[in-house]
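Input (structure):
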């Protein structure tokens, strides 16, 4: 200890805290510098060696700076490290504390648990965890990784890497931290993936496995991405790997939406494709679902018929015409649902029928009848709650909205549905609904479902066989165009409770207007595939 000043140069493979002569009688590692070197601003290390022998703990205590172009190996504790260290820094002892600084290359070898200390912790290039080692990242810290992770041992805590998923970078494994994302179509752009291991998340009274990913792309809608979610057996939290399913939360882990995915228990991966947006993702087995199976559709639509100046008329309700049982049990819907009320709630315009689809032209996954209210909200039979689907898993669905004498509409894209679905407002833009000119322009930037499909065949037709107009005349008797009939009729296109063929507020004219206004041979079809 006669000269504590040490200038570290490239020394690979030796315990760098060796001071003076090694047990073999040769001088290794640190090179001693004289005070004039210090005066020239050279880098300084102060070593205090607790033990000399290779088999004993050795500490690194620094009070200056470190210029490392090789490898620094510490068997005991390191302290006083500068905020950033070049070269390779290796902790090769048994259980050790790892100060939170910016390492260039961090190697964790030896054995036991390497516990990081509080603070900003980064690895500019590569992080290596040897097979007998557990890296325990302090709970308030996240390791920011620049390069790759070599994980022969275990990692607990949070590690994060950011990759620009754009241009030719159509896939990344994010430095091997355990999530691989590939994409086509819309570029996610710069995307950060934070993996957390060793902690379970909770939902629906159940726990997840002890791993989750928080994935944040720059563009986070309209994606077509595939996620390969890796896990390790020691994170299973006593769950059955073969029935693992992915779950995602868009509210920070409060509610969870089932995503499914394909488990490969040999590869220890769960793969899910067709992902349109990212968020917080974890996994749980079939016996520990993180969400209930009830989801809701929270949608706003307008019907052109009863619409005027921002809201819809409740004339049918006022006239007592709305049936207490859902009316879609006839052709063409043939919906056998038992939705029924003892009285129609206030503010209700009419019954609606809502379908969920997994693909734009695929089969109906689930169907329910509910009400639409004067403000456009589609609600359950209580008259206020979003329309619930009790037997459907949360996830991404196309929403199809049907009405007995208006052309059906469908959401332009899938909508993420959960027990707390966000509002999907069809009324604000044509682009909210699927297809070309799917809705009527109601003025003032408001759009609604086309009125006039009296025979509910999906097409507005004014003349010729199977047209919608003639049915109105038939309903009022078939000859005298001045007669009217009151009640709950599909021929009451404007839904004021009166079937009327001619004169003010008649139900015929809007059909002609909707097919173009002049050529009676034109038609208009629903845009729902
Ligand atoms: Ca029709
Ligand atoms: Ca009418």
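Output (sequence):
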């Amino acid at each position: 200890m006669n000269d504590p000043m040490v200038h570290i140069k490239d020394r690979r493979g030796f315990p760098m805290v060796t001071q003076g002569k090694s047990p073999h009688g040769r001088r290794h590692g640190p090179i001693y510098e004289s005070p004039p070197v210090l005066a020239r601003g050279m880098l300084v290390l102060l070593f205090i060696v607790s033990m000399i022998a290779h088999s004993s703990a050795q500490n690194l205590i620094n009070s200056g700076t470190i210029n490392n172009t090789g490898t620094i190996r510490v068997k005991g504790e390191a302290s006083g490290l500068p905020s950033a260290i070049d070269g390779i820094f290796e902790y090769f002892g048994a259980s050790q504390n790892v100060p939170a600084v910016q390492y260039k290359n961090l190697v964790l070898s030896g054995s036991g648990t390497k516990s990081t200390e509080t603070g900003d912790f980064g690895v500019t290039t590569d992080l290596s965890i040897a097979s007998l080692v557990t890296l325990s990242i302090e709970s308030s810290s996240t390791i920011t990784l620049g390069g790759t992770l070599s994980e022969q041992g275990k990692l607990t805590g949070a590690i994060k890497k950011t990759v620009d998923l754009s241009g030719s970078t159509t896939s990344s494994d994010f430095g091997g931290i355990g999530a691989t994302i590939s994409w086509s179509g819309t570029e996610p752009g710069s995307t950060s993936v934070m993996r957390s291991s060793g902690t379970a998340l909770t939902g629906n009274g159940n726990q997840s496995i002890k791993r989750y990913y928080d994935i944040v792309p720059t563009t986070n809608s309209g994606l077509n991405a595939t996620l390969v979610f890796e896990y390790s057996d020691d994170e299973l939290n006593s769950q059955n790997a073969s029935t693992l399913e992915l779950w995602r939360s868009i509210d920070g882990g409060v509610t969870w939406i089932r995503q499914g995915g394909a488990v490969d228990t040999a590869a220890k991966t769960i793969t899910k494709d067709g992902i349109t947006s990212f968020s917080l993702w974890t996994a749980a087995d079939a016996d520990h679902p993180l969400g209930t199976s009830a989801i809701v559709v929270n949608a706003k639509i307008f019907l052109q018929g009863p619409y005027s100046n921002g809201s819809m008329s409740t004339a049918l309700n006022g006239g007592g015409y709305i049936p207490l049982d859902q009316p879609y049990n006839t052709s063409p819907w043939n919906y056998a649902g038992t939705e029924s009320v003892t009285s129609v709630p206030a503010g209700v315009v009419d019954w609606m029928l809502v379908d969920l689809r997994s693909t734009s032209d695929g089969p109906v996954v689930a169907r329910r009848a509910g009400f639409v209210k004067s403000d456009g909200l589609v609600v359950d039979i209580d008259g206020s709650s979003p329309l619930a689907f009790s037997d459907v898993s949360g996830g991404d669905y196309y929403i199809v909205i049907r009405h007995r004498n208006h052309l059906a509409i469908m959401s332009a894209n899938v909508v993420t549905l959960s027990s707390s679905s966000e509002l999907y407002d069809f009324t604000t833009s044509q682009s909210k609904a699927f297809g070309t000119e799917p809705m009527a322009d109601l003025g003032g930037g408001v759009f609604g479902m086309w009125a006039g499909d009296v025979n509910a065949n999906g097409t507005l037709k004014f003349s010729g066989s199977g047209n919608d107009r003639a049915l109105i005349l038939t309903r009022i008797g078939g000859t005298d165009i001045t007669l009217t009939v009151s009640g709950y009729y599909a021929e009451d296109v404007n839904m004021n409770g009166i079937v009327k063929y001619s004169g003010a507020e008649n139900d015929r004219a809007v059909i002609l207007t909707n097919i173009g206004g002049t050529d009676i041979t034109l038609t208009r079809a629903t845009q729902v595939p």
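Notes: Residues 1-57 have pLDDT under 50 and may be disordered. The pocket of calcium ion (ligand 1) is lined by residues 453, 455, 457, 459-461, 468 (CB under 6 Å).
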